[in-house]
Each structure stands twice: as structure tokens, then as C-alpha cells.
């Protein structure tokens, strides 16, 4: 991602365009939107008793077997991944991701007081929840942050070795869903697979280095 320079120039075909990096307002707004998307996605999945991939899926899965809230679990599971992020992705990325994760945890605790989902079909929850989570991850990544957890590892692999973050996430999600078979009904695991595919597809389709100027 382009950081630090006031502007840069990039050639596209026969045209030369002037590129400016994201401003502080751009980052704050983009990260806030990403956080909201992730929270909405998790709430939809939770309402249908589904899980998804990544740390959000692990948090949902553990919340179904313990008394801990999904928001608290989301933060606790993320802690070792933040250390990894600090060591390999830098302090700036880690601080942004940590702020985002704390905000997600707080919203997951507060949002049910303002939004009550009475009924949602598992297919709607899977497609909507997975897509919302994917859009949230994408928005955060575009502004130099992540939701923590496995997302930090997949973004690092893409940055370091050029391995598509979405494909790596699919492999990780497959393991999470296999574990879920011992806790969640097979039918719900099937719908959860759809949510994981929807989430990872968003990242695979849109998070490609060099596809967008200014990032």
C-alpha cells in the first residue's frame, strides 16, 4: 500500500494519473464502515446459529459451548495474532487492527440492545452474514488494518509471498468447519460453509495488490 508520499504517479495504458494516499479521515471512515459490516455479519450468523470462517467463526463456535459472549471471545482469541502482526506486519497495522477489534467487541455487546433479529432463514444468514463479513475485512484491509486472527496471517502471506489471502482463508475455514461438525448440526455446518465461501470470495475477488491505485 502506498503510504507517506503526498502523491505518486501511475501509468495506466496511455494515461498517467496522479495518486494520493488515503487521508486520516479516509482511514477512520473506511475502518469504521468495515467494523460495522463485520458486526452486522456476525449478528446475522449468530441469529441463525451458524458460524463462518476466521476468528469470527471460531468465536461463534466457542460461544455456543460456553457462557462467554462472542465479543469477548473475539478479543481473547485475537491476542496472540496481534503479537504476530506486530512482529511481521508492523506497529501501524497492528495498532489499527487492535483498535478495530476492540470496537468490534464493544459493538457486539451493545448492538443487540438496538437490533433484535427475530427470525432469519439460514440461507439468508449465510449469504448475508458471510458477505457482510467479507466486505468488512476488505474495507479494513484497504485501509491498512485487519480483523485480527487468521486474517493477519493470510494478509502477511499475501504481502510476503504473493499467496492470495482469500485462497489461504478458504483452507483455514475448511479446518474450522470440520471441527464444527462435532458441535453444530451438520445441516447448520452446511449453511455455515456457504457463509465461509461468501466471505472468502469477497476477499479473493477484490483484494488484489496493484488492482487499485492509492492503496
List the helices and strands and how they pair.
Blueprint: E1 8-12, E2 15-19, H1 24-47, H2 54-63, H3 70-88, H4 91-110, H5 122-142, H6 150-161, H7 165-180, H8 186-206
Antiparallel strand pairs: 1-2
Helix pairs in contact: 1-4, 1-5, 2-3, 2-7, 3-4, 3-6, 5-8, 6-7, 7-8
Structural summary, described in words:
The chain has 215 residues and is mostly helical. 67% of the residues lie in helices and 5% in strands. It has 8 helices and 2 strands. The chain has helices spanning 24-47, 54-63, 70-88, 91-110, 122-142, 150-161, 165-180, 186-206; strands spanning 8-12, 15-19. It has a two-stranded antiparallel sheet with strand order 1-2. Helix 1 packs antiparallel against helix 5 (122-142) and helix 3 (70-88) runs parallel beside helix 6. The radius of gyration is 17 Å and the shape is globular. The termini are close together. 46% of the residues are buried.
Which short descriptors sum up this protein?
single chain, 215 residues, mainly alpha, two-stranded antiparallel ribbon, globular, disordered N terminus
